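ok so i was messing around last nite and threw this chain in just to see what happens. nothing serious, just curious
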Amino acid sequence: MKIFTRLVVGLLVCVSLQSWAQQTAVDYFESGVTKSRSGDFTGALQAFSMAITMNPENSASYYNRGLAKANLKDHRGAVLDYDRAIDLNPKDALAFLSRGVSKSKQDDHRSALLDFNRAIELNPDDPQAFYNRGASRSRLDQNRGALQDFSRTLELDPTNQAALYARGITRQRLAEYTSSLADFTRLIELNPKRAQAYAARAASRLELNDFAGVITDCNKAIELNPDDAESLLNRGYAKSKLEDYKGANSDYDKAVTLDVNSFRGYYGRGFCRSKLGDQKGAIADFNQAIEVKNSNVETKVYYSGRISHDKLDELRGVVQEKNKINELSAERSEAYFSRAVSRNKQGDVKNAIADLNRSIELNPTYSEAYFTRGMIKSAQNDQKGAVQDCNSAIKLNPRYAEAYYIRGVIKHALGDENSGCLDLSKAGELGYTPAYKVISDFCN
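result:
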């Protein structure tokens, strides 16, 4: 079972700036706080960005913009803002805590531990810091340390349900099943509708050979969550141990319906069928148990970050054309550019590229021409050429949000996930909101 950290989004730090000249920065900051509280994190991010532009030495603006990015699942971008907030205020425990959370969301648990350690040094009475450190330790299989952190969380916050569940799971991993029962029982007292707690307590009882208790807890877990295949398997096993083969067979039937790759389900059903005299059915199930792909063994899934060619086409198509009429210069580079756009729409890619090449020759600072040529190159599967053109567009116009977006999705598609996600973060920061959907889907 996995223990997931909780994102810390509380406490939006407000600062008062005295000088009249910075009043506008205060207005943007307060607007960002209001938008964050209402759940408008995109609007909050933009407001905090304006506050930073007007007052780049205010650590609270970076911290709160980091929180907004984290809520948009842009954890790489959030870390960059927390870095700056910490540079400006090295004793901000919340900034260390939040940076640790965003690092843990990227599976960088060793680095997250350092941040949680510092947060605890600065504020040793914060239960959330101990909980998050325990969660990262658990992910690193440092179960004894995790147990200590979850216990400290509960000393500071005795009704913390997440910590009770996490400590119970950690005790299971340490084979301390009797102790884990106490945690799950307390959790059920606090929240009788939490199906996970019943399922987890059943798992501990199974290890203690309390098969009647397993059935009781699994009954409740399944009542609360009828699609809980694991509880059906555990109840089926407990019934088999008590020689209720018909009841067990029914549970295994439901389990393999919910999870067709459940080797435990096929094995258990085969065993019951054999006991009930159906040897043909038993052999068929045992065959399945041997042959089926085992989807129940926990494996670490490393997301490759690669965006397929078709997905890249789809994401590129999100960018809206912004071809506005410009005053025609003596070199007429604008005319070449506009003709290129029209030719590309007609499918005349070769001549469209030729026109863009000529437009750039006539006006080497024409950022839109580089970007448009990059878009066309990407559509023609020349991704490296497209990245080079986006590089040129961004060099000429550092606030070219769409160029960061396109460069980001291409880099991601080529396997450079980290750099691609940073570009997407920058695009979102500059106001190109579709970037956050891509970040949510491919950068976490």
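not much to say yet. Residues 33 and 256 are 49 Å apart (CA to CA).
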